Amino acid sequence: MAQRRPLSLQARSTLAAGMALAAFLGVTGFALDQAYYDAAVAGMRDRLQSYVYAYLAGSDVLRGTKLLPPETLPDPEFNRPGSGLYAVIIGEAPTLHWESPSALGRELAFDSRLAVGETRFDGPIDNSVGRVFVFSQGVSWEVDERKPVTLTVHVAESEQQFHRQVAAFRRTLARWLGALAVVLLLLQIALLRWGLSPLRRMVRDVDDVMNGDAERLPGLYPMELTPLTESLNELIDFGREQLDRYRNTMSDLAHSLKTPLAVLRSELDSERGYDSLRNTVADQSQRMHDIVSYQLSRATASRHQVFSTPLAIEQAAEGIVGSLEKVYAAKRILCEFEIDPDARFYGSQGDLMELLGNLLENAFKWASRRVTLTAHVVKAPRMRRAGLELRVEDDGPGIPPEKVEHLLQRGVRGDERVQGHGIGLAIVQDIIKGYRGTLAVHRSDALGGAAFVVRFEAA
């Protein structure tokens, strides 16, 4: 089954923004709808209460037995039968009962009596004329010097008009929120395209590098992309360096093998005896072996790695020193460590082993009794990873300052009587150069011999 292609960053962002926008507008719409509904109910209550006050202001009670309604009703709808707006006034006596013309012929269940000063708002409630909102208020009517008359005024309005009003608001709200959602989504897409434009530009720049139209990623990028582009440029440079190194190594190897091969051919063409030929072949074979070993070591040194796991120093050093103590057991050399627990080498395990191995082997070779290995962290502000300083010292004869540069050349040995091929320190220099480090050689203040100081700056 073909694996489904993941969504693009723009599609993901648009989908996420659309979902968030839908949720936000949904909650906003619900809140606005609820607020409008509550406000409409409150407006209904205030309107019905104002009708009650209008009826009380225009009505009168004769001799405490007869109710006279107002000559002009608060709203013409009270005069139209079945209009949906109803008024009922009831008292203790049958003659103190009045209904608006709109309520004639309809059985309205407005027969409850309220205490003086009590008000009540209900709705929507079921009634014979449908569901209505009802506002009721109990009052006490003073009639001359007679006993006050208690009246209850009920004013009701059908919910149909109320629902039409709410429905109209909801339609308007939905249209506006829908239009707002479309505008915000289009704006979000435009902002995303603008925000992701540096990524598209970086993709084009990478294509130019792959097609050979550019050597590195050019131009300025936002600060969030700067670490990535810097790492990509380092990776591009690293690839070119690797290719150049392999080419140079093969060229150097071919050039270096020309001389021993020429010597062998010359020996074959000569009339010397078998023993001379045998010795020449043995010498030149060993020389070619040394050349190939050196060139392979040089070619396989992996150099600076952009993405690498930090490696602890102490564990690698312990393994190397253990082997060297067996090789140089006769010298009884004491090797001491002073390694910062946080010290790390950012590179390959092989490079670390080659670096430490050659430096420590050189120290063991020349030391009299003591060798020290020191590793410290090199810190710098605002850097992604700390640097490293390695120091290998011995109590041997040391290296005169004027001979340091000569000794570090390929194939040069400090003493021809000491076994070796003179390529160890050259490999060390190649590794250090590949990791953009530095190598310093001077006299050890503590032991009096040579001190090799390797430093990799923070990055």
Automatic annotation (TrEMBL):
Residues 252-459 form the Histidine kinase domain. Keywords: ATP-binding, Kinase, Membrane, Nucleotide-binding, Phosphoprotein, Signal, Transferase, Transmembrane, Transmembrane helix, Two-component regulatory system. It is found in: Membrane. GO terms for molecular function: kinase activity. It comes from Tahibacter amnicola. It catalyses: ATP + protein L-histidine = ADP + protein N-phospho-L-histidine. Pfam families: HATPase_c (PF02518). Its EC number is 2.7.13.3. Its main location: membrane. InterPro entries: HAMP_dom, HATPase_C_sf, HATPase_dom, His_kinase_dom, HisK_dim/P_dom, PhoQ/CarS-like_HATPase, Sig_transdc_His_kin-like_C, TCS_sensor_his_kinase. It comes from the Bacteria. The keyword Nucleotide-binding applies. Residues 1-22 form the signal peptide. Residues 193-244 form the HAMP domain. This is histidine kinase. The keyword Nucleotide-binding applies. The chain crosses the membrane at residues 173-194.
